[in-house]
Amino acid sequence: MIFKINRFFFDEKDIFVFVLGLFLLASWVFKISTFPFRFSSLLINFIFLIFIRPRVSHQRFDGYIYLSLIALLLSLTFSPYFITLFLLVGYLLYTKIS
Asked: Can you tell me the distance from the alpha carbon of 30 to that of 51, in angstroms, rounded to the nearest whole number?
């Protein structure tokens, strides 16, 4: 599903990143608990998706969404430092493979 606003194209993955950012902003402003996830791990996932999005095409972004969802599940048990390392290594491996 692709949305067109003037000369910009958006798809559901862009909307996912936008809604995730809105959720993080609202949970930070209104002090909403993100339990069982750590807020810092969610923030790392969001920043990863923001930095990756302009660098890859729409077709290759699917792999990064899956990588971020795995990191989201890992954030239930691991620290934000591990999540950062996991996303960095996953990004490097994924760019070498594809």
From this structure: 26
